[in-house]
Amino acid sequence: MNQPIRRIATLTCLMFLALLVSVTMIQFVRAPELNADARNSRTIYEEYGRERGPIIVADQPVVTSEPVDNLYNFLRTYQQGELYAHSTGYFSVAFNSITGVERYENSVLGGSSQSLALQRLKDLITGNAQRGGGVELTLDPDVQQAAVDALNGQRGSIVVLEPDTGRILAMVSIPSYDPNLLATHDAEAARANYDALVADETQPLINRAIGGDLYAPGSVFKVVTATAMLENGYQPNDLIDAPTEYTPPGTTHAINNPGELACGDGSGQATLLQSLRQSCNTPFAIAAVDLGEDTVREQAEAFGFGQSLSIPMTVTPSQFPDTATQAELAQSAFGQFDVRVTPMQMAMVASAIANDGSLMKPYLVDRTLSADLGVLSVTNPEEYSVAMSENTAQLMTDMMVDVVANGTGYRAQIQGVEVAGKTGTAEISTTIPPHAWFIGFAPADNPEVAIAVVVENGGYQGFGTDGGSLAAPMAQSVMLAALSD
Amino acid sequence: MTAAPRAASPGRLPEFLLTVIAVLIGVGAYALVNLGAEGSLPGNFVIISAGALGVALTAHLLIRWAAPYADPVILPSALALNGLGIAVIDRLDIAKNTSHASSQAVFTLLGLTVAVLTVVVLRDHRILRRFTYTSLVIGALLLLLPLIPGLGREIYGARIWINIAGFSFQPAELAKIFLAVFFAGYLVVNRDNLALAGPKFLRLQLPQLRHLAPILLAWAVCIAVLIFQKDLGTSILFFGLFVSMLYVATDRLSWMIIGGLLALGGGFVAFQAFPHVTARFTVWLNAMDPDVYNAPFGSYQVVQSNFGMASGGLFGAGLGQGYPGIVPQANSDFIISSIGEELGMIGVFAVLSLYLVIVVRGLRSAAYVRDGFGKLLASGLSFVIALQVFVVVGGVTRLIPLTGLTLPLVALGGSSLLCNWIVIGLLLRVSNAAREPQIRSSEPLPPAWEYDGGGEPPHDLTPRSPSSPADRQETQAVQLP
């Protein structure tokens, strides 16, 4: 009977060999593929199980990982969640989703970044659990809070930049939401909260500052057209055509000035300065047709229109449309037709003028830190483009100072500080109230802040709104907060 | 048959040392689980460790006394598996907020007691031959118990449990042992008949038809068990047990081939006829398919267990540091994936190696033991351990379709643990007989040092003709009361 017993032994060994091969297939050969499968929640559990690094604003951690007694070990916790929601984003295990800085700086926060290799080695030797590094934002909490207060619950967005660096001092999108609602480990609650936020008509999850439905800019776009005019031989005090009504070639549709008023003294001509101060439409329409579509577009692109930008979140490119007719080009010149912008883009326009024509690349992440808060990297300011000559920038500054000092933007005045700005009222249709805009910077001679404000559909003012009465005072209070630091 | 070992080394010192190592493995795993998952040692750690060491060494000493020549590797291997199993179950208790580890520990104590009792009470395994047909009756009754209304319970779709006074028991586990005893007793008597040549078919020497009847009957019984209890795994085990013992008894490969074909045929019929078997095949073949994954009774479990093993990789997440709790039934049917996740491929290989050690040592005892009954019993029980491990790990790793079986000695389950320890006890007993020095009464007793410490006997594994003198001894063994 020993022969068959030996054969049974051989068979047993073969069976076990097959098992070893099968186990090797799963744990070694196919492991990368299985680990990458979206249904393998361990990947995200591991990120939670690791102590994720903090997101820091002005030396205060605003997002932390709190130890909890469950599968994930740590609960991502958002202090002042609503204030920073659109910058920080959220880290949700319930639906395996990461947004905002949480997502774009995930390699540092989650600890997998190459820059953290040394720390990982140290943790391995000392036996510490792997930890993520910290991310320090450029936001200024006072300015951020002032922007939220200024909007006062009205749907819209405020972006504040430091013109000579591109640092984002404030980026607010209202309505906001509490990321803790989505970060909760209670999957059912997270799902319900998420569904409620998605179903909310006011779309709180959308970051209006950089990625919402783009806005019609209205008259604030005249700053772009005016820059193109100055760059192409116009002077602020030259008299240009500024009729009360202008019908572009190839159409019967007349363009009027706001309120169908005469521009300047009613002679049919006005200076560029006067046109901007009063926010006339016709002189810009005529000038755009005169300059041609390409010239205006190139100027817009120099400001960043149609260009890719990440702050590190991706900023939806603003659009200067292809205009099929001169009528469309004329409309576009003062921000109507299909011109669509993000508040970030308009803050960049203001910032480029403030910085002598040099547009600095906006950025939100100031520094990345190791888990021991040693500095891993510092973001160096970077020029994004040269939007105009220094001379043009100076002339634009002077004109925009005039808009605030003597024109539609007077409500943005700050005592003792020279403020430059431009208002906008972007008409949408006869049934939907217009958006109220203001862009500007201060102090005009040595700019510290550039700002863009948009309030959707006139906010509480509804149809009676305009940029000067609604957006300009908001810009004033936010700039005041920024300058008083 | 084989020659008797010339000078057996009892190997008690190696067993002592290996037992200590086995306890250290279990206790160490328990410590790591708690350090990894909770960051601290459990409060009762010292008491538990001392208790485990005391119990294991007591078992070692009793076996040393009752079966001094028993294989020294089997007990420590089983202890290591059992200890590791408790640690992993404790790990899952922490993950899922349950408390199964303590009951598993109690059953381990009981199991070890039963194993020792088996060795102590059963002074000679050949006594079991007297109970050949009694075993058949008991085995069959045990197998059918779950079908009795009121007594049997259906869990996860399989009716393989009985409930007595609040305790659940899987009688098939015990039936496995009784049927092994019956098969061994029956086959050792009828092996010549079964080995008789019958008609030839496709160059395959078939047995005579009337001798084919028992295997057909066994096959039919297994299918019946499958049908009524929806228990694929147990029917595979019984069938494998029977065919392997038949093969050992007759040395006729045709039995294996016929058995294999019948098993495939039965599997195919089951695949066609029973939706739950069809579902298992679908899961096996298309596990990653999202539809199969999301379907009720779909591949979620298997896929999640594969994810766990994959995330463990070569070295594992470390005990207490993975997420084994995600896998449903992680402490019973899928415990190998918990081990794979936290101890890695190396850990799984180690566990499989321990099983292989037990199985090969069992088969070696079968080869060396001098009576046919012992050979059949030991080889049958050893093979059934191997088959069970193969079916479980093969099912989890999708080598074969998944069947509901648990990993012997490691997985959660009192009845399974008790019965597997009885099997270990029986293997120890047979191995003692295999390694006992054969002393002819005509020769004077050699001094102890001549066969003590002389190392393992040389293992002569060359085939022998059936007419070798050892066979005559076996004939004598048949005549024992």
UniProtKB/TrEMBL annotation, chain A:
Domain Penicillin-binding protein transpeptidase: residue ranges: 156-479
Pfam families recorded: PBP_dimer_2, Transpeptidase
Protein's name in the database: Penicillin-binding protein 2
Organism: Flaviflexus equikiangi
Span of domain Penicillin binding protein A dimerisation: 52-135
